[in-house]
Automatic annotation (TrEMBL), chain B:
Location(s) in or outside the cell: Membrane
GO CC aspect terms: membrane
Membrane topology label: Multi-pass membrane protein
Protein's UniProt keywords contain Transmembrane helix: yes
Protein name: Cornichon family member 4
């Protein structure tokens, strides 16, 4: 009987900790941690322990295993957290998969071809070094996709084979590896960048079959039948070429045209070479290195090169072959991936492609048209005919060269030549007035407008949803800057054309702000180790791709325009191992970089990862049964918790008392220490409560195994959350770290107690919704205290009743924590929630984490940030204090234009996130975004990013509903649409006032705002529980844009007839891409099955007359009637429809951090209401249908 | 008796002037990043109640001593002070809330408010001084 043997020490220990001292000397005793009023402590612990605990002593018998585990853990965690092996790779595969869309496929094909060419001709590592111009051009031209895939495969290799050289898997192999370990670099370079890997050729082949037919298809479907006409057509795609060549001599353009026509007659694969040759032939090897398109601007050397290079430095002929000679280095694979991602998402929507074409013509110089001699200025009719081809096959003739020059999304291509002026870099400071006047003239003089401005009659045009997801608009920058620019997933601005003055912004009636996702899981990220981090001396901006080098030794800050010296160390480029090329340093070639910070960036030594779990063990909690799930998840992921050898962990439980657990190494079993004095909480023992994860692992495991059963018979219904939090704060304050609080009810005892404020009868009131703000400032104060000690509080609220989330959420809001809410959680009654908790926890426990972080957002002089949204504490004007930062946190800021931006044509924004990684490294992640400044209202509208606008408006509306009232916020939302549309309609005077016209860029605006009005956070008239509403508001504030958009406007797909057409290939899997459906019941046919993707939930709605084959093959039931009510998983059936459906769903899942819960809905299912509530285009008792909403807006405008 | 009222008002007004200056200095410290929001707000919130009381006392005194003009002059600001104090939402940590002071231009409006009050108190100061002089002459 080891049980009795195991038991005695524990009570003894408890007694030792509580000498049962006289209660009178409490105050005196408390500071020493020798606990006073605890005569009852040991007693209780004895009462509670034996029940669950005594049964576990067998676990204690193997303490030796604990030591043996240490090394293995060390290795695995080492892998983990360099963002390399297991941790990142799951996320890695997802974006990479997206590269494989058909249109990109053509590209990939070219890539491969050119690469073979390349491989056969030159040794791989000489890119940009020896042969530079001529040969280097070929791989570089096709580089974007090459690197995306190659590095993908190369990555796998690194993970699998050379774990020790972990720097190689740094996410950005080319760059960072070189940088961090220059010795190895040359050896690794060819290896990583151009492996003749089987994967790549496989991809290539996969696409050969796809893309070649596509090309044929193009010819068939295209209105231009002959090849000669299709040449100018493709030329127009080459915006910069068409544009530039008009500047130069016609003959050169002609030669290019010849090249192109030659190439088109040849195989698609040849095109690439031809284009490059063209460049070489025309004796312009100077530019050939950089981009295929630019190199083909012959006879145009000086101006072109200056335009190209000026961002980097002044044109110096002797060096002009250099600046872009290593594009494969400069372009981070991540951004390449990103671009590929973009293209995958957007090329599938046909209309932008067409309009792109449309806009290209309109935007260029008139000569462009004459040179290209386009036969048809694309009347709308052929456009629509082409629209019917869903997947962008229309333009397989897109040269890879083109796709490299400007990132390949069609929308990007839509307005590139709209502002030719941007071709001249602002750093050159050309005559600004002259420039802007030419800009201003262009947009209006040309009959054809940029795509973003194409007027759309909302009341008549019913199909405004794109075929697949809505792309982020691409800033109207010149291709070089655009390529360098920050990914829209990390950094988005509501207006991609920044208005010049506040007056112009006010006229546009659109909010100006940024949406940030700074700590996003990145697949590849250049990490820079450098003793000096180069920053502007006056505004402390980090050096970035958008600064200008005045000469070799000086650079001009792009935010405050101060001229700074280039430090000596920065002159040396470890990448190329050359001296005197500061503009080629990775910092200047990537808009997202991470620096390893020196000790200057530390106020104290980097803290270890510290995790404290505060668990509710009252009767309510035990009844809900969450403890089992939490403990099991923790047990499973104990080794995957991000951290190093110093990682510490601790547990506190609470009901009406607070229980601590001494897990000090050397104890035979965990000790429970109970403090019942909740009014004056203290720590019962100074150490042993937060213990080293590795040293005390066995004890921790014992505790986790025992915890779920320890409180099974508790009768304690009260909850002293406030005191437990105070205790947790005391425990954490020396180090900082993360507190995870699990709460199941309204705190009812001690500090921070709350009362029920919800009146159930008011749930569906249309008038006033009260109590959206906190009831007490206790949690806010606590959060600020925690934030001051670098501690974040994450709240998991699993309640079945009202728990005043509005008050509780404060503890996370201001300490930069996160909030999870599981309404009516019960482990057996509500399995969907239980599953969700399990999945969320898995992600929560293993995701990356940054400690003691601060974030600063800087913007170009003249712009100022006035409001911040998200979970953090604004410590000083622009410094956000983030005790913890996690990859799922998004932020938003609102800006105003304080000084007019007339002196500049570019506005830049930089976020710098300084954090301590879980490995104890101090790191700075810097994102820089660069946007053009415009002075006409039309341009402001053309560049509006409707998703960002809506997300920012949602954030503002949350603030408004808390500080003012919900109806106020709703009115403000509607007014935002009314004002901006009426402002737009008044600018376009030729429009008929009787119609509701929106610019193409804002065509989804009314739809999204209507969706917001019907969102849980803002809806009225429909019964909404206060906690649900508050949680939705919290999510709006803290979710990054991608997730928020799914929450606001879910995606609906029809899945019963998934076909192979328009599929993408991901890891040998075929993923069908059904088109997006309108969120309207009219789309739901009884014969179909539909999947709704709401971000955190998937609903599959099965129609009554749904094909029995589908039900049988996908759901695994013979007919509709036999489908069970609660179905949360699709069975694995070996049939094509099932395979397709599952691969589609898992593809959707792969793209997001929190794995959504799937629910199959039949007609009678209670979840049906949830599903139908998301059909926002339909009318409900309390809200407009989409059409009615449009009429309402029109009425308001006409007033 | 009249002069006692004015002398008291004068002293009170001096205190309010100092308080306004203190508010302005602390807020501008926050603006310039010399102190953080938390300490700034806890400093300022301490003085909100004294300010309300100080001003209310003068206002009431003027009403009692039947100086209608000065009373009416003081009334709006005194009302605003009290209104502002009462209308603090339950979850906020006082009139100055560290979590919100940087949002929606609150800092600027607080600053503006303190400036206006400073001007007003200076005006009152000279008015009281003048009144005392008048009293002493008569």
């Amino acid at each position: 009987m080891s049980a009795p043997a195991g038991l005695p020490p524990r009570p003894a220990g408890a007694v030792a900790a509580y000498p049962g001292g006289p209660g009178g000397s409490r105050e005196a005793a408390a500071p020493q941690g020798a606990a006073p009023r605890c005569q009852n402590g040991p007693v209780q612990s004895q009462m509670q322990f034996p029940s669950g605990y005594g049964s576990h002593p067998p676990n204690y018998s193997a303490p030796s295993g604990h030591y043996s585990q240490v090394p293995s853990k060390a290795v695995s965690s080492h892998l983990d957290n360099q963002y390399r092996a297991s941790y990142q790779s799951p996320y890695y595969s997802a974006p990479a998969q997206n590269v494989m869309t058909p249109p990109v496929g053509t590209n990939v094909l070219n890539t491969r071809e050119s690469q073979q060419f390349y491989n056969s001709s030159t040794p791989p590592h000489t890119v940009g070094l020896t042969e530079g111009p001529a040969q280097g051009a070929i791989p570089s031209g096709s580089y974007v996709y090459t690197s995306a895939q190659q590095s993908y495969s190369a990555f796998g290799d690194h993970y699998n084979t050379s774990v020790s050289s972990s720097v190689a898997s740094q996410g950005f192999p080319l760059n960072s590896d070189h940088y961090a370990m220059p010795v190895v670099s040359s050896a690794m370079y060819p290896n990583v960048s151009y492996p003749p890997a089987a994967t790549s050729s496989m991809y290539g082949q996969a696409f050969t079959s796809q893309s070649l037919p596509a090309a044929g298809q193009f010819k068939e479907t295209n209105t231009f039948s002959s090849q000669s006409t299709s040449v100018p057509h493709s030329l127009q795609q080459h915006v910069p070429v068409g544009y530039n060549s008009t500047l130069s001599t016609i003959s050169s353009a002609q030669s290019f045209q010849d090249n192109l026509s030659k190439s088109l007659t040849g195989s698609v694969a040849k095109v690439n070479n031809q284009v490059n040759r063209g460049g070489i032939d025309s004796s312009q090897p100077v530019h050939s290195v950089s981009q295929n398109v630019q190199l083909t601007k012959p006879g145009f050397g000086a101006p072109a090169s200056s335009a190209l290079i000026s961002s980097v430095r002044t044109p110096a002929p002797g060096l002009s072959s250099q600046p872009r000679s290593s594009p494969s280095i400069t372009q981070s694979p991540d951004s390449a991936l990103q671009e590929a991602l973009d293209s995958s998402s957007t090329t599938s929507s046909a209309s932008p492609v067409l309009n792109n074409y449309d806009a290209l013509e309109g935007g260029g110089y008139p000569e462009t048209r004459s040179v290209t001699n386009s036969p048809v200025p694309t009347p709308p009719a052929p456009q629509t005919s082409k629209t019917s081809k869903p997947f962008g096959y229309g333009y397989p003739a897109l040269q890879p060269a083109y796709q490299n020059t400007s990132p390949p999304t069609p929308v990007q291509a839509t307005n590139p030549s709209h502002h030719p002026g941007f071709q001249h870099y602002p750093q050159q400071y050309p005559g600004v007035n002259q420039l802007s006047s030419s800009l201003g003239g262009l947009s209006l003089q040309h009959s054809q407008q940029p795509e973003g401005l194409r007027p759309i009659n909302l009341t008549q045009d019913r199909n405004i949803l794109p075929v697949s997801s809505v792309p982020a608009p691409v800033p109207n920058l010149n291709s070089d800057l655009r390529k360098l620019n920050c990914s829209p997933d990390s950094f988005r601005c509501t207006l991609t054309n920044i208005p010049q003055t506040q007056a112009l912004l006010n006229k546009a009636k659109l909010p100006l702000g940024l949406l940030l996702h700074p700590f996003r899981d990145l697949t590849q990220l250049p990490v820079i180790t450098s003793s000096t981090i180069v920053r502007c001396r006056s505004c402390r901006t980090y050096i970035n791709p958008f600064v200008s080098f005045i000469d070799q030794r000086r650079w001009k800050c792009n935010l405050c325009y101060r001229v700074n010296d280039v430090p000596e160390e920065f002159m040396y480029n470890p990448l190329t191992r050359s001296y005197g090329e500061p503009h080629k340093r990775p910092e200047v070639q990537n808009s997202t970089v991470e620096f390893i910070a020196s000790s200057d960036y530390m106020l104290r030594p980097p803290q270890p990862a510290v995790y404290l779990f505060v668990l509710d063990v009252s009767h309510n909690a035990v009844d809900a049964g969450y403890l089992t799930i939490v403990c099991n998840s923790l047990l499973e992921n104990l080794d995957k918790l991000p951290g190093d050898s110093r990682t510490r962990i601790g547990f506190i439980t609470f009901d009406s008392t607070v229980q601590f657990y001494n897990l000090q190494e050397g104890l035979s079993q965990p000790q429970m220490l109970i403090v019942s004095d909740i009014d004056d909480i203290f720590l019962p023992t100074p150490d042993g409560l937060l213990v080293n994860l590795h040293e005390s692992k066995e004890l921790i495991k014992d505790l986790l195994n025992a915890l779920p059963n320890m409180f099974t018979n508790t009768r304690e219904t009260h909850s002293a959350l406030g005191s437990a939090l105070q205790a947790a704060f005391k425990l954490m304050s020396p180090t900082g770290g993360r507190i995870s609080v699990f709460q199941t009810q309204l705190p009812s005892l001690g500090a921070g107690l709350l009362h029920s404020r919800e009146d159930p009868n008011q749930r569906s009131s249309t008038k006033v919704v009260q109590h959206l703000g906190p009831a007490t400032d206790f949690y806010k104060k606590l959060a600020l205290d925690c934030s001051g000690q670098q501690t974040a509080v994450d709240l998991f609220l699993l309640s079945s009743q009202y728990s005043d989330l509005a008050s509780l959420a404060c503890m996370s809001k201001y300490s930069a924590g996160c909030i999870y809410y599981y309404p009516s959680f019960h482990h057996s009654h509500n399995p969907a929630q239980a599953e969700k908790l399990q999945k969320d926890l898995k992600r929560y426990l293993t995701r990356k984490i940054g400690f003691e972080a601060v974030m600063r957002i800087r913007c170009t002089k003249g712009l100022s940030i006035h409001t911040f949204h998200g979970n953090f504490f604004v410590r000083s004007t622009d410094l956000l204090s983030l005790a913890n930062v996690n990859p799922d946190a998004g932020f938003a800021v609102q800006m105003s234009i304080e000084e007019s931006l007339t002196d500049t044509s570019l506005a830049c924004f930089q976020t710098a996130l300084l954090y301590t990684s879980s490995k104890g490294e101090r790191r700075i992640r810097v994102h820089t975004l660069c946007l053009p400044v415009v002075n006409s209202l039309a341009d402001v509208y053309a560049g509006a990013d409707v998703q960002a606008v809506v997300c920012l408006l949602a954030n503002m509306a949350v603030d408004r509903s808390v500080s003012s009232s919900l109806p106020d916020a709703r009115d403000a939302l509607v007014n935002a649409v009314v004002d901006s549309l009426s402002a737009y309609m008044s600018t376009a005077s030729n429009l008929q006032q009787s119609m509701l016209i929106a610019p193409n860029s804002l065509k989804l605006f009314p739809l999204y705002v209507l969706a917001l009005l019907k969102q849980k956070a803002f809806r009225t008239g429909t019964s909404t529980r206060l906690d649900d509403r508050v949680y939705a508001m919290c999510q709006i504030k803290s979710q990054p844009l991608v997730h928020l958009m799914k929450m606001i406007h879910p995606n609906l797909y029809r899945i019963d007839k998934l076909i192979d057409e328009s599929t993408i290939h991901v890891n040998d899997r075929v993923v069908p891409q059904p088109p997006l459906q309108k969120l309207s019941a009219e789309k739901l046919t009884r014969e179909g099955a539909f999947l709704m993707d709401c971000g955190s939930n998937f609903y599959i709605w099965i129609g009554k007359n749904c094909d029995n084959n589908f039900i049988k093959d996908v759901l695994g039931y013979p007919n509709y009637a036999s489908i069970p009510q609660r179905m949360t998983q699709l069975p694995e059936i070996d049939a094509l429809p099932s395979e397709r459906t599952r691969s589609f769903i898992s593809w959707l899942r792969d793209n997001r951090p929190l794995s959504p819960v799937l629910q199959v809905i039949k007609d009678e299912n209670p979840a049906k209401t949830d599903f139908f509530q998301h059909l926002i285009e339909d009318r409900t008792e309390a809200a407009f249908s989409y059409y009615e909403f449009l009429l309402h807006i029109q009425q308001q405008i006409c007033k | 008796m009249e002069s006692v009222v004015f002398i008291f008002s004068l002293i009170d007004c001096c205190a309010l002037i100092f308080l306004s200056v203190y508010f302005i200095i602390t807020l501008s410290d926050l603006e310039c990043d010399y102190i953080n929001a938390r300490s700034c707000c806890s400093k300022l919130n301490k003085w909100v109640v004294p300010e309300v009381i100080g001003h209310a006392v003068v206002t009431v005194l003027m009403l009692i001593s039947l100086h209608w003009f000065i009373f009416l002059l003081n009334l709006p600001i005194a009302t605003w002070n009290i209104y502002r104090f009462i209308m603090v939402p339950s979850g906020n940590m006082g009139v100055f809330d560290p979590t919100e002071i940087h949002n929606r231009g609150q800092l600027k409006s607080h600053m503006k408010e303190a400036m206006i009050k400073l001007g007003f108190h200076l005006l009152c100061f000279f008015m009281y001084l003048y009144s005392i002089r008048q009293q002493s002459i008569s």
